[in-house]
Amino acid sequence: MPELTIDGRKVEVAPGTNLIEAARKLAIEIPYYCYHPALAPVGSCRMCQVEILDAGKPPRVTIACRTEASNGLNVSTTGKDCVAARAATLEFLLANHPLDCPICDKAGECDLQDFTYRHGSGVGRFTEPKRATLKHEPIGDHILLDQERCILCTRCVRFMDEYAKSPSLVVAGRGDRNVIAIFPGEPIHSNYEGNLADICPVGALTLKEFRFKSRVWDLDTEESVCTGCDRGCSILLDTKRNKTLRVRPRVNLQVNGHFICDQGRFGLLDALNPVGREELGWVNGARVTAAEAASALATTLAAERGKWLVLLSARLTCEELLLAKAALRPLAKQLAYVPVAAAGGDEILFTGRRAANQKAIERLGITALSEEAAANLLAEPTTVGLLSFDGALAARLMSQLPAAAKSRRLAIVDVIAKAVMANAAVMANAVLKPPHGAELFVPGTLFSEKDGTFLNVGGVLQRARRAQRWPQGTVSESQLLLQVAASGGVSLAELTAKPDLTFALLEALGQPGAMLAQLPDDGLKLAAATEVAVA
Amino acid sequence: MENYLSTEFARSGPLLLAEALNKGRYKTAQRVFELMTPEQVVDEVKNSGLRGRGGAWFPTGIKWSFMPKPPLKGPSYLVINADEGEPGTFKDRAIMEKDPHLLLEGILIGSFAIRAETAFLYIRGEYLTAHDALATAIAELEQAGFLGDAVFGTKHRLRIVLHRGAGAYICGEETALLNSLEGRRGEPRPKPPFPAVYGAFGRPTSVNNVETLANVPAIVEHGAAWFKSVGTAQAPGHLLFGISGAVERPGCYELPLGTTARELVEKHAGGVKGGKKMRAFIPGGASTGFLPPEKLDVAMDPESLKKEGTMLGTGGIIVIPEEISVVDAARVFSRFFRHETCGQCSPCREGSAWSDQVIARFQRGEGQREDFTLLEEIMRGSKQRTICVFPEAFAGPLGSAIKHFRGEFESAMTTQQAPHA
Description:
The complex is a heterodimer of chains A (about 525) and B (about 425).
Chain A: E1 3-6, E2 9-12, H1 19-25, E3 49-53, E4 60-63, E5 74-76, H2 80-95, H3 111-119, E6 137-138, E7 143-145, H4 155-163, E8 169-172, E9 179-182, H5 195-199, E10 205-207, E11 220-225, E12 234-240, E13 243-249, H6 262-271, E14 281-283, E15 286-288, H7 290-303, E16 308-312, H8 318-328, E17 334-337, H9 358-363, E18 367-368, H10 371-379, E19 385-388, H11 391-400, E20 409-414, E21 419-420, E22 432-433, E23 440-443, E24 452-455, E25 460-464, H12 477-488, H13 493-496, H14 501-508, E26 524-525
Parallel strand pairs in A: 1-5, 16-17, 16-19, 17-18, 19-20, 20-23
Antiparallel strand pairs in A: 1-2, 3-4, 3-5, 6-7, 7-10, 8-9, 11-12, 12-13, 14-15, 14-23, 21-22, 24-25, 25-26
Chain B: H1 17-22, H2 27-35, H3 38-48, H4 60-65, E1 77-82, H5 91-98, H6 100-113, E2 118-123, H7 128-144, E3 159-164, H8 174-181, E4 205-209, H9 210-222, H10 224-228, E5 238-245, E6 251-256, H11 261-268, E7 278-282, H12 302-307, E8 316-321, H13 326-340, H14 346-363, H15 369-382, H16 390-410
Parallel strand pairs in B: 1-2, 1-4, 2-3, 5-8
Antiparallel strand pairs in B: 5-6, 7-8
């Protein structure tokens, strides 16, 4: 392992590490634009200039991104030549930049702003007319291109080529007429387009979905996990006034690297801001509070012990699944889940299996039923009803029932939009009805509204932090399950005696020792399945 | 020493193979393929002191010695840089249009020396006449069995791929040329890796200039000692000096390296046109910048010009007469370099455009005293700070104009107070 010196401090790095990453290990900032840890370095922005010190020779200015750390290398990031070189590069980059920060979505998290403050000069000397090129030009489904703001680092071009495997951007023109462009009439068509707004170091590529939505410094950010598929990419949720305004990737080399897909990014944006969400419960066609609906459900399950088919959902956190298994198995005729198959995934991140926590359900030893088997079980005369944590699945199963079994009762715990009577022609006269005609409906919560963990397809357990408040009066799934257990006389003492549910979960998965707060930021990679004994 | 590069320049069309053979052409190449080893050829060229005529003056034999030796792990390539684009330079064009077989014989020997079985001849897109002459000549060689699977009936193979550029000055930079040849954007590659390690299509490649290769047959025929008998100790041989601009007899002149600029301009090119005075001259193509007439006695070789703070470059002299101001002439070049930078590196892309705009202000009589500092800092901020040496090229005319002709810029300054002063 080469050991080198940067600004007088020694650091040991893996062979092949470049000087930017070596300096990062020492928390020394070497500014850069064209370099990106996930892309091959091209060395064209000339921002990352440092000095190589060699005894008896004048300092040699070179670029850090394409210089590999080698044993005994002595690097300065503060020598006057490299400081001047970086300032000169910034002055060049700013010469034709429009400086429209007050109306730019990137302001506040812009590398051009930040590096200019830290490495640039306070005054510009460029007095010529600035270049006029295309502004806010749509180049795909989500991305707008502003060629005037662009500093031509070409990260976007290389991202589409190297990572998204969908070459769709080019540098067109030559010299100071260079612009980033799509091929004529061929907009970007990729599941990874959204990342362009993240990797663009300036405000040249911005998201339609976030345009003028907020200044970034007004956002609250929480670390979370994408539930778009069971890859479970590490993400950041940016919220403002309880609305999720933006979903961004969070670097996690053992799950998703530096990026996320558009299915996740924009799917979550919709899922976490549900339109017309039903916030009240339903019992026998009457709208009641969520608490009243929860009580009714708990009473029903206790009274009709062993008669309900209960189907869990992969939308639930690991802790909720653990609790559900303990609370519901003694009360249900059968506790099961319907596995979701992968469809339409890609070779990069998106698995196509839209069931974020399916791996956790599997590893907890819950019975898997095909949709057909579940419908058959529901149709059995000894089954009185279905409790489903997935509204859409419940609706599908109920519609498959033979005429003789049409009387099966339905209880749903999920986040669902308000259902309106089909004949309610005018909204003012809209008549609400229970979602999917459920006898019992308890409004569920979104994963972003609670703390918990998700186990991804590769066996990495990651923490999703609470980023949003749930609607006032909501009973969370955990509260509901505790109430169900209490009503049914099921003891949860074995779980509640543990430091927390995550601790109990890890114990159940055969890898004991950590509480929720002790999980590493990039998640805990679990040992390959030591299958949990089915109780 | 008799001329060995320009013997056919007086012709109206290219020398064809039949006549070339009558003149003894390809005898050297045949002897090389039949009797010599690649090492012997490389050693002969190395001993001759031949240096690259494309402008960088790197020793050709040393460049060839970087190429892989057996056992080879795959193909090596010879790439011929015929993308002659330096303003004031037209020597390669003369060779290719009039004497394509001189170059081709050099290519045959060069390919043999570096064990290449494919040579890519990358020719400037605008050089249509030269292209057609080469295409004909290559077809003649194929017909004659001098190319193909059994060159001169030996076991050696060679094919020559003629490839036209698309009109970019930067593609004369060897790695931009390789990118362009591969169908990519013509942008220089970061070095290392150098072409000898990772060149065309990722294979070891030697990129050589047309005139350089045209020297090779004579060197191999007559020997290193013969070659070193003319020119300077460090830069032996003849050079094709192109003289253009305001002279009586512009053209391409074959003379020993180290000939003075004065001899070239006054004796061979007949002096400044119309007997006028000279305001400035450019010694070796646009990027070498301006020199005042007092420097006419400089010897035209790399070392002597380096002492004057400039370069021999391609040896293309441009003479600027008294009626043209150096400010105007500098603007011509700043506009050229602004137009031709590939633009991948920020300092070069922005610096070439910015400096052009500043010179334009001087041209309009709106220069300001601060602009001298600004121009110097634009040059300092971009020189040696990019992937290739393009900023050195645009700083050549700009820096030398200010250095030697500052007075002309000062008289082109505004009389108004600077807005920020």
